[in-house]
Amino acid sequence: MATHWGTPLTGFAGSTARQFGVGGTDLGIPYDRDHFAPGGSGFVFGDTFTGDSQGSGTWLGSPVLLFSSDLPDATTTFSAPPGGAQARQALTYTHDADNGYGFEVSRIPHDAFVDPNGRTWLTYTSVHDWSVSDDRHGALFCGLAYSDDDGATWTDYAAVWPNDGSDGYGGWSPFMMQSFAGIGNNNGDGYLYIVSKEWGRSHNRNGPILMRVPWQRIAVRAEYEYWGYDGSAWRWGNPTPTPLFGGMGPIGEVSVKNIAGTWVMSYFDVAGACIATRTAPAIDRVWTAPKRQIVASAPWWQFWVRTFPQLYGGFIHPRSSSSTDITLYVSQWNTATNSPYWVMQFDGITP
Length: 351
Prior knowledge:
Elements: E1 5-8, E2 29-32, E3 41-45, E4 48-49, E5 59-61, E6 64-68, E7 97-98, E8 103-104, E9 106-114, E10 120-127, E11 139-147, E12 155-156, E13 161-162, E14 177-183, E15 191-197, E16 209-214, E17 225-229, E18 234-238, E19 251-259, E20 262-269, E21 274-280, E22 291-295, E23 311-316, E24 326-333, E25 341-349
Antiparallel strand pairs: 1-25, 2-3, 3-6, 4-5, 7-8, 9-10, 10-11, 11-12, 11-13, 14-15, 15-16, 16-17, 17-18, 19-20, 20-21, 21-22, 23-24, 24-25
Protein backbone atom coordinates (compact mmCIF):
# COMPACT_ATOMS: atom_id res chain seq x y z
CA MET A 1 0.00 0.00 0.00
CA ALA A 2 1.29 3.45 -0.90
CA THR A 3 2.12 5.44 2.22
CA HIS A 4 3.90 8.32 0.49
CA TRP A 5 3.15 9.19 -3.08
CA GLY A 6 5.14 12.21 -4.10
CA THR A 7 6.04 13.48 -0.63
CA PRO A 8 8.55 16.36 -1.00
CA LEU A 9 11.66 15.93 1.14
CA THR A 10 13.76 18.97 0.18
CA GLY A 11 13.29 22.46 -1.24
CA PHE A 12 10.50 23.75 1.02
CA ALA A 13 10.23 25.52 4.36
CA GLY A 14 9.51 22.45 6.49
CA SER A 15 12.17 20.20 5.01
CA THR A 16 14.35 18.36 7.53
CA ALA A 17 17.30 18.99 5.19
CA ARG A 18 17.19 22.77 5.76
CA GLN A 19 18.85 22.67 9.17
CA PHE A 20 21.94 21.27 7.43
CA GLY A 21 21.98 23.97 4.75
CA VAL A 22 20.30 21.92 2.01
CA GLY A 23 17.50 23.74 0.21
CA GLY A 24 16.79 23.23 -3.46
CA THR A 25 18.47 20.08 -4.73
CA ASP A 26 17.86 16.99 -6.84
CA LEU A 27 18.57 13.26 -7.27
CA GLY A 28 18.65 12.10 -3.62
CA ILE A 29 20.27 8.78 -4.48
CA PRO A 30 19.88 6.40 -1.51
CA TYR A 31 22.46 3.85 -0.41
CA ASP A 32 22.66 1.36 2.45
CA ARG A 33 24.78 2.41 5.47
CA ASP A 34 23.94 -0.59 7.62
CA HIS A 35 27.68 -1.29 7.93
CA PHE A 36 28.03 1.91 9.99
CA ALA A 37 24.56 2.35 11.50
CA PRO A 38 21.94 -0.42 11.62
CA GLY A 39 19.09 0.59 9.35
CA GLY A 40 20.94 3.72 8.26
CA SER A 41 20.99 5.19 4.77
CA GLY A 42 23.04 7.77 2.94
CA PHE A 43 21.64 10.13 0.31
CA VAL A 44 23.65 11.73 -2.48
CA PHE A 45 22.36 14.91 -4.08
CA GLY A 46 23.30 16.80 -7.23
CA ASP A 47 23.67 20.57 -7.59
CA THR A 48 22.51 21.93 -4.23
CA PHE A 49 21.55 25.40 -3.02
CA THR A 50 20.85 26.81 0.43
CA GLY A 51 17.72 28.53 -0.91
CA ASP A 52 14.68 26.43 -1.71
CA SER A 53 14.64 27.11 -5.45
CA GLN A 54 17.22 26.25 -8.07
CA GLY A 55 19.87 28.98 -8.10
CA SER A 56 18.76 30.67 -4.85
CA GLY A 57 20.93 31.32 -1.84
CA THR A 58 24.44 29.88 -1.81
CA TRP A 59 25.44 27.14 -4.21
CA LEU A 60 26.96 24.25 -2.24
CA GLY A 61 28.03 22.35 -5.36
CA SER A 62 27.70 18.67 -6.24
CA PRO A 63 27.69 15.98 -4.96
CA VAL A 64 26.33 16.65 -1.45
CA LEU A 65 25.57 14.02 1.22
CA LEU A 66 23.03 13.66 4.01
CA PHE A 67 22.17 10.69 6.25
CA SER A 68 18.93 9.20 7.55
CA SER A 69 17.94 6.48 10.02
CA ASP A 70 14.47 5.91 8.52
CA LEU A 71 13.57 2.76 6.68
CA PRO A 72 11.40 2.98 3.54
CA ASP A 73 7.65 3.41 4.07
CA ALA A 74 8.40 6.05 6.69
CA THR A 75 8.81 9.65 5.62
CA THR A 76 12.53 10.16 5.17
CA THR A 77 13.95 12.63 7.69
CA PHE A 78 17.52 13.71 7.24
CA SER A 79 20.28 13.81 9.84
CA ALA A 80 23.72 15.39 10.08
CA PRO A 81 25.96 14.91 7.07
CA PRO A 82 29.41 13.35 7.39
CA GLY A 83 32.12 15.62 8.71
CA GLY A 84 30.02 18.27 10.42
CA ALA A 85 26.65 19.84 11.09
CA GLN A 86 26.41 21.60 7.72
CA ALA A 87 26.26 19.92 4.33
CA ARG A 88 29.08 20.57 1.89
CA GLN A 89 30.37 19.31 -1.40
CA ALA A 90 31.80 15.81 -0.91
CA LEU A 91 34.46 15.80 -3.64
CA THR A 92 37.34 18.26 -3.80
CA TYR A 93 37.43 19.93 -7.22
CA THR A 94 36.83 23.32 -8.82
CA HIS A 95 33.71 24.02 -10.84
CA ASP A 96 34.00 25.70 -14.26
CA ALA A 97 37.69 24.84 -14.43
CA ASP A 98 40.19 22.28 -15.66
CA ASN A 99 41.02 19.93 -12.79
CA GLY A 100 43.55 18.00 -14.84
CA TYR A 101 41.18 16.20 -17.22
CA GLY A 102 39.70 19.07 -19.22
CA PHE A 103 37.08 21.72 -18.52
CA GLU A 104 34.48 20.63 -15.94
CA VAL A 105 31.27 22.42 -15.05
CA SER A 106 30.10 20.07 -12.31
CA ARG A 107 30.22 16.44 -11.17
CA ILE A 108 26.82 14.78 -11.06
CA PRO A 109 26.45 11.62 -8.93
CA HIS A 110 24.72 8.46 -10.14
CA ASP A 111 25.07 5.93 -7.33
CA ALA A 112 26.88 4.90 -4.15
CA PHE A 113 27.33 1.71 -2.15
CA VAL A 114 29.31 0.39 0.82
CA ASP A 115 31.42 -2.69 0.08
CA PRO A 116 31.86 -5.61 2.53
CA ASN A 117 35.03 -4.02 3.92
CA GLY A 118 33.26 -0.78 4.80
CA ARG A 119 34.55 1.37 1.95
CA THR A 120 31.95 3.70 0.43
CA TRP A 121 32.07 4.05 -3.35
CA LEU A 122 30.62 6.87 -5.43
CA THR A 123 30.23 7.04 -9.20
CA TYR A 124 29.59 10.30 -11.03
CA THR A 125 29.74 12.04 -14.40
CA SER A 126 31.97 15.03 -14.97
CA VAL A 127 29.90 17.49 -17.01
CA HIS A 128 31.89 19.32 -19.64
CA ASP A 129 29.03 21.45 -21.03
CA TRP A 130 25.32 21.54 -20.18
CA SER A 131 24.32 23.59 -23.20
CA VAL A 132 25.64 21.65 -26.21
CA SER A 133 22.93 20.79 -28.73
CA ASP A 134 24.28 17.26 -29.09
CA ASP A 135 24.75 16.13 -25.52
CA ARG A 136 27.10 13.27 -26.38
CA HIS A 137 29.72 16.05 -26.09
CA GLY A 138 28.38 17.16 -22.71
CA ALA A 139 30.20 14.55 -20.60
CA LEU A 140 33.94 14.60 -19.98
CA PHE A 141 34.30 11.31 -18.09
CA CYS A 142 32.66 8.95 -15.62
CA GLY A 143 34.59 9.11 -12.36
CA LEU A 144 34.96 6.95 -9.28
CA ALA A 145 35.69 8.02 -5.70
CA TYR A 146 35.85 6.24 -2.36
CA SER A 147 35.65 7.06 1.34
CA ASP A 148 37.08 5.04 4.23
CA ASP A 149 35.44 7.17 6.92
CA ASP A 150 31.72 6.89 6.13
CA GLY A 151 31.69 9.77 3.69
CA ALA A 152 33.58 12.40 5.69
CA THR A 153 36.52 12.53 3.26
CA TRP A 154 36.94 11.17 -0.25
CA THR A 155 39.72 9.98 -2.51
CA ASP A 156 39.09 10.60 -6.18
CA TYR A 157 40.53 8.22 -8.78
CA ALA A 158 41.77 9.48 -12.10
CA ALA A 159 39.12 9.41 -14.82
CA VAL A 160 38.47 5.72 -15.33
CA TRP A 161 35.91 5.99 -18.15
CA PRO A 162 36.86 8.89 -20.48
CA ASN A 163 34.37 10.17 -23.05
CA ASP A 164 37.03 11.04 -25.63
CA GLY A 165 36.37 8.30 -28.18
CA SER A 166 39.30 6.19 -26.99
CA ASP A 167 36.90 3.36 -26.11
CA GLY A 168 35.75 3.15 -29.73
CA TYR A 169 32.37 4.77 -29.22
CA GLY A 170 33.23 8.19 -30.60
CA GLY A 171 31.62 10.21 -27.85
CA TRP A 172 28.64 7.88 -27.54
CA SER A 173 30.25 6.05 -24.64
CA PRO A 174 27.80 3.75 -22.81
CA PHE A 175 29.92 3.97 -19.64
CA MET A 176 29.04 7.52 -18.57
CA MET A 177 26.11 6.94 -16.16
CA GLN A 178 26.53 3.91 -13.91
CA SER A 179 24.30 2.26 -11.32
CA PHE A 180 25.82 -0.10 -8.75
CA ALA A 181 23.24 -2.88 -8.95
CA GLY A 182 24.72 -5.10 -6.24
CA ILE A 183 27.25 -7.78 -5.35
CA GLY A 184 26.38 -11.33 -6.37
CA ASN A 185 23.83 -12.42 -8.97
CA ASN A 186 21.64 -14.24 -6.41
CA ASN A 187 24.50 -16.72 -6.03
CA GLY A 188 27.26 -15.10 -3.98
CA ASP A 189 29.64 -15.02 -6.96
CA GLY A 190 31.61 -12.01 -5.68
CA TYR A 191 31.01 -9.81 -8.72
CA LEU A 192 29.76 -6.25 -8.49
CA TYR A 193 27.12 -5.82 -11.19
CA ILE A 194 26.82 -2.43 -12.86
CA VAL A 195 24.20 -1.13 -15.29
CA SER A 196 25.41 1.77 -17.38
CA LYS A 197 24.30 4.09 -20.18
CA GLU A 198 25.32 7.03 -22.30
CA TRP A 199 25.27 10.53 -20.88
CA GLY A 200 22.12 12.57 -21.07
CA ARG A 201 18.59 11.89 -22.22
CA SER A 202 18.37 12.75 -25.89
CA HIS A 203 21.10 10.52 -27.29
CA ASN A 204 20.72 7.24 -25.41
CA ARG A 205 19.94 5.19 -28.48
CA ASN A 206 19.72 1.55 -27.45
CA GLY A 207 19.16 1.33 -23.73
CA PRO A 208 21.54 0.42 -20.92
CA ILE A 209 24.33 -2.14 -20.87
CA LEU A 210 25.38 -4.62 -18.18
CA MET A 211 28.90 -5.27 -16.90
CA ARG A 212 30.52 -6.85 -13.86
CA VAL A 213 33.80 -6.74 -11.98
CA PRO A 214 35.14 -8.54 -8.87
CA TRP A 215 34.07 -6.10 -6.17
CA GLN A 216 37.60 -5.90 -4.75
CA ARG A 217 38.80 -4.73 -8.21
CA ILE A 218 36.25 -2.04 -8.91
CA ALA A 219 38.93 0.53 -9.77
CA VAL A 220 40.69 -1.72 -12.32
CA ARG A 221 39.03 -1.15 -15.66
CA ALA A 222 40.78 -4.14 -17.26
CA GLU A 223 38.93 -6.43 -14.83
CA TYR A 224 35.49 -5.50 -16.14
CA GLU A 225 33.64 -7.90 -18.41
CA TYR A 226 30.49 -7.39 -20.43
CA TRP A 227 27.20 -9.16 -20.92
CA GLY A 228 26.65 -9.35 -24.65
CA TYR A 229 25.30 -11.23 -27.64
CA ASP A 230 28.01 -13.01 -29.66
CA GLY A 231 25.83 -13.76 -32.68
CA SER A 232 24.36 -16.97 -31.34
CA ALA A 233 23.96 -16.57 -27.58
CA TRP A 234 24.12 -14.09 -24.72
CA ARG A 235 27.20 -14.61 -22.57
CA TRP A 236 29.64 -12.99 -20.18
CA GLY A 237 33.04 -12.08 -21.57
CA ASN A 238 31.75 -10.68 -24.85
CA PRO A 239 34.35 -8.25 -26.25
CA THR A 240 31.77 -5.46 -26.33
CA PRO A 241 28.54 -5.02 -24.37
CA THR A 242 25.17 -5.45 -26.03
CA PRO A 243 22.32 -3.12 -25.01
CA LEU A 244 19.88 -4.98 -22.79
CA PHE A 245 16.84 -3.65 -24.64
CA GLY A 246 17.84 -2.95 -28.22
CA GLY A 247 16.13 0.00 -29.83
CA MET A 248 14.25 1.02 -26.69
CA GLY A 249 14.79 4.74 -27.25
CA PRO A 250 16.28 7.43 -25.03
CA ILE A 251 16.21 7.15 -21.26
CA GLY A 252 17.51 9.35 -18.48
CA GLU A 253 18.76 8.28 -15.07
CA VAL A 254 18.76 4.52 -14.39
CA SER A 255 18.77 2.69 -11.05
CA VAL A 256 19.05 -1.08 -10.48
CA LYS A 257 18.93 -2.94 -7.15
CA ASN A 258 18.46 -6.49 -5.88
CA ILE A 259 15.40 -6.43 -3.62
CA ALA A 260 14.95 -9.75 -1.76
CA GLY A 261 16.21 -11.78 -4.72
CA THR A 262 14.38 -9.87 -7.45
CA TRP A 263 16.33 -7.46 -9.62
CA VAL A 264 14.45 -4.20 -10.07
CA MET A 265 15.27 -1.50 -12.61
CA SER A 266 13.87 2.02 -12.62
CA TYR A 267 14.56 4.69 -15.23
CA PHE A 268 13.22 7.87 -16.73
CA ASP A 269 11.55 7.04 -20.05
CA VAL A 270 11.98 10.14 -22.22
CA ALA A 271 9.40 9.29 -24.89
CA GLY A 272 6.88 8.14 -22.31
CA ALA A 273 7.59 11.08 -19.98
CA CYS A 274 7.46 8.77 -17.00
CA ILE A 275 9.41 6.75 -14.48
CA ALA A 276 9.21 3.12 -15.63
CA THR A 277 10.24 -0.11 -13.92
CA ARG A 278 11.23 -3.64 -14.99
CA THR A 279 12.16 -6.77 -13.04
CA ALA A 280 14.19 -9.93 -13.61
CA PRO A 281 14.88 -13.10 -11.56
CA ALA A 282 18.62 -12.64 -12.23
CA ILE A 283 20.37 -9.62 -13.60
CA ASP A 284 21.52 -11.50 -16.72
CA ARG A 285 18.12 -13.03 -17.51
CA VAL A 286 15.11 -11.75 -19.41
CA TRP A 287 13.60 -8.57 -17.99
CA THR A 288 9.89 -7.85 -17.94
CA ALA A 289 8.28 -5.29 -20.21
CA PRO A 290 8.39 -1.74 -18.83
CA LYS A 291 5.68 -0.65 -16.43
CA ARG A 292 4.71 3.03 -16.20
CA GLN A 293 4.79 4.19 -12.59
CA ILE A 294 5.00 7.97 -12.22
CA VAL A 295 3.97 10.23 -15.08
CA ALA A 296 4.82 13.78 -16.06
CA SER A 297 1.60 14.33 -17.99
CA ALA A 298 -1.61 12.54 -18.91
CA PRO A 299 -4.39 13.10 -21.48
CA TRP A 300 -7.03 15.56 -20.32
CA TRP A 301 -9.64 12.84 -20.05
CA GLN A 302 -7.50 10.95 -17.51
CA PHE A 303 -8.36 13.62 -14.96
CA TRP A 304 -7.88 11.21 -12.06
CA VAL A 305 -4.19 10.63 -12.79
CA ARG A 306 -1.84 12.65 -10.61
CA THR A 307 0.99 14.08 -12.70
CA PHE A 308 4.42 15.46 -11.86
CA PRO A 309 5.60 17.75 -14.67
CA GLN A 310 9.33 17.84 -15.46
CA LEU A 311 10.18 14.82 -13.35
CA TYR A 312 13.37 12.78 -13.62
CA GLY A 313 15.51 10.41 -11.60
CA GLY A 314 13.70 7.52 -9.95
CA PHE A 315 16.32 5.98 -7.65
CA ILE A 316 15.49 2.73 -5.85
CA HIS A 317 16.07 2.49 -2.13
CA PRO A 318 18.18 -0.68 -1.65
CA ARG A 319 16.33 -1.37 1.61
CA SER A 320 12.88 -1.22 0.00
CA SER A 321 10.28 -3.20 1.93
CA SER A 322 9.90 -5.98 -0.63
CA SER A 323 10.10 -6.69 -4.34
CA THR A 324 6.43 -5.68 -4.57
CA ASP A 325 6.75 -2.58 -2.38
CA ILE A 326 9.51 -0.39 -3.77
CA THR A 327 10.51 3.08 -2.58
CA LEU A 328 11.70 5.54 -5.24
CA TYR A 329 13.23 9.00 -4.96
CA VAL A 330 12.20 11.22 -7.84
CA SER A 331 13.27 14.75 -8.76
CA GLN A 332 11.13 17.56 -10.08
CA TRP A 333 12.42 20.85 -11.47
CA ASN A 334 10.17 23.55 -12.89
CA THR A 335 12.69 25.12 -15.25
CA ALA A 336 10.41 28.12 -15.93
CA THR A 337 10.37 29.34 -12.33
CA ASN A 338 13.14 27.16 -10.78
CA SER A 339 10.66 26.14 -8.10
CA PRO A 340 9.96 23.44 -7.18
CA TYR A 341 13.45 22.03 -7.39
CA TRP A 342 13.22 19.13 -5.01
CA VAL A 343 13.35 15.43 -4.26
CA MET A 344 10.13 13.49 -3.66
CA GLN A 345 9.55 10.09 -2.03
CA PHE A 346 7.25 7.46 -3.56
CA ASP A 347 6.42 4.29 -1.59
CA GLY A 348 4.22 1.30 -2.33
CA ILE A 349 5.32 0.87 -5.93
CA THR A 350 4.86 -2.59 -7.44
CA PRO A 351 7.37 -2.91 -10.30
